[in-house]
Amino acid sequence: MRRVIGIARKEILHILRDPRSLAVAILMPAMMVLLFGFAINLELRDLPVGILDMDGSSASRELIRSMTSSGFIVNGGYLSSRSEIEPGFRHNRFQAALVIPRGYARSLIRNPSTEVQILIDGADGATAATVDNYMNAVIAMTNRSSLPRSLAPSLPLLEARIRYFFNPQLVSAHFIVPGLVALIMVMICAILTSITVAREKETGTMEQILTAPVGAHQIILGKFIPYILIGAFDASLILAIGHLVLDVPMHGSWMVLAGYSMLYLLIALALGLLISTVSRTQQVAMMLALITTLLPTLLLSGFIFDHSSMPVVLQHLSKIVPATYYLRVIRGIMLVGRNWFPLEGGVMLGMTVVLLITAVRRFKSRLE
Amino acid sequence: MVLMYLVKKEFRQVFRDRAMVWIIFVVPIIQLLVFAYAVTLDLKNVRLAVLDHDRTAASRRLIEAYFATDLFIPAGSVGRPDDLKKLLIEGRADMTLWIPRGYGGDLAGGRQVSVGIAVNGTNSSLAGRGGGYAWAVIMQENERLIEEILLKNPADSRIHSIRPVTRFYYNPELRSRFYMIPAVVVIIVTIISGLLTGMAVVREKEIGTLEQLMVSPITPFQFIAGKTIPFVILSYVELSIATTIAVLLFKLPLEGSFLLLAGCMLIYLLVTLGGGLLASTVSQTQQQAMFTIWFFLVFGFIMSGFFFPIRNMPAWAQYLTYINPLRYMMDIVRGIFLKGSTLTDLLPHLLPLFALGVLMFSAAILRFRKRLG
Predict the structure, then answer these.
(1) From CA A171, how far away is CA A160, in angstroms rounded?
(2) Using the beta-carbon criterion (under 8 Å), do B302 and A151 form an inter-chain contact?
(3) B112 vs A74, B105, B115, B138, CA distance in Å?
(4) N or C: which end of chain A has fewer CB within 10 A?
(5) Does B359 contact chain A (CB < 8 Å)?
(6) Residues A195 and A216 in one domain
(7) Chain A partners of B206 at a C-beta cutoff of 8 Å?
(8) For testing the chain B interface, which of A24, A283, A291, A327 should be mutated: the one with the most B CBs within 10 Å?
(9) What does the pLDDT look like over A8-65, one tens digit per residue?
(10) Class of domain B46-152
(11) In a domain, A159, yes or no
């Protein structure tokens, strides 16, 4: 144990000798949660729609008004000819265009059916689909309100009362902040520990440690401990900011959340250590830390993209991403108020043990 | 001539480590593949649990309407309202549908009926869109009921309706993939060019070989050119590989010209290489450089409109995105791939990008000069 403490002490000196990295490791996560927590908003609103009103009647203005009344789409400017539509899409001036043909008002009275055109910039497919749904719904509603009065009283027959649980206002921050916590924690911790062993190899001090009478597991453990402190501090700070500043509710228990966060932290640190033992240079170590944490956590953990719409192969792949489990836990605790996650806890514990043992093994094989 | 030796040395340094070859050539391809399949905002397989108190042909018709597409999949049907809530809490259902007793009878009698839908709102964007689709199914059922009533009174000829005709430009099948892949190309080039340049310089500093270079008769210009040219070449290799995969494997249309894409990339590289160099001049260790570049990378990704639309950000954040080179590059690459944008179309993006590049690169060179002098 004394040897472990010795190694830990040496590692702490390393950290303190570079106060700038330490400051960055502590302040940057806080800054990122604040910045992104406030900036990111997934709710679509105020989508500009270019309007080409060739009729200019009160009926056409009525349609434009009902389209833009909810604020989901807004009038992105009147166009004077069709030739302005495509350049508008290319310069991202508007997301869609509504074309009301000449004679619209007259046709509405005379003909059973009158055509209007909805042209949508489909480059961003998901947004395009939502805009299409919305504009069609407005037209369907307009049609229904123009039905003969003799039928009107009994309509609409069917109604839906929709309630959103756990996040009734559908606030983006409540969904995003837990994801940010997971992303930032895993990256900071993995990058911090990924260089610890690689640095000794690169600067040549590895040989000196190897000649000292300490075992592989003692070195690994000693290098591990100081970073647990930094990681735990970071985690508390960003969770506090998420709850106090960004107003993410806390329906579960802080103690339970602290426990799982600690487990998640250990996984990230162990991952960094493992990377460090297999890399020969700091550059490789840090690149590996970046590659194994940033994109998998952004893409496969359920941070933004839901698992249900992924192909089966990726759904399986997402099971080896630690953040997948941590995200389920942190969202469950904070938003839903669930406190019992046997499956997720078990998997996370298993990951920690496997990563640590592999790191020690790899380190040992280097020794011989 | 000296320059060529420097470039050669840099390449040798990069590829001396087998792991680096993997990181530079294999990992980006894997990223592209994973991205292309993972990054989809299309709604699918929403797990819907049902509580049917009515159990009539009408209620079964509504339930069937929900499961007619692969948008909703059954998550079991239960007998008590409490069970519905339990399924939501335990995360075994994303949405629940509650059909009241007398549903079929009331509808047949022309009385209004309301059904209850509960959505797990944890994932706010998914929940919003899922709720929208659930509502749309109800509206369609409504439409069907109205049509049935209208069929009974065929005498009514006073019905006039508006018929919307929708046309989608650029990506008619609305594949998220088409929107995301061009962005991934930008990300890959950013990581390779920005990160590797910065670390290559700091590495010399940290292990002490920078002093040796300084006492040698190499001019600062040669030094910087020697550090950046290898990564320019690598970036173009990456760009070509990624574009080939995007077009051949994912059938992404390359509407614009590849030459224009390559030209815009050169301006963008000015930014990333300048940024990497700048980060290296303010860092003493590779770790510091890594943290600095990492911070700007994550900032760049998140504030670029890649996953999170800029239009929805608060005003101050929208202003902040104007200093984000990725914001311009995403629009440029997406424009060239999907919309066939031409040089004149892209000027509003290219000019600020060029200004940023010149600014960062000259700042890096100035800082270097000062250290050397």
Answers:
(1) 22
(2) no
(3) 33, 11, 10, 13
(4) C
(5) no
(6) yes
(7) 203
(8) A283
(9) 898 888 888 888 888 878 888 898 899 888 988 877 778 999 999 999 999 999 999 9
(10) alpha beta
(11) no
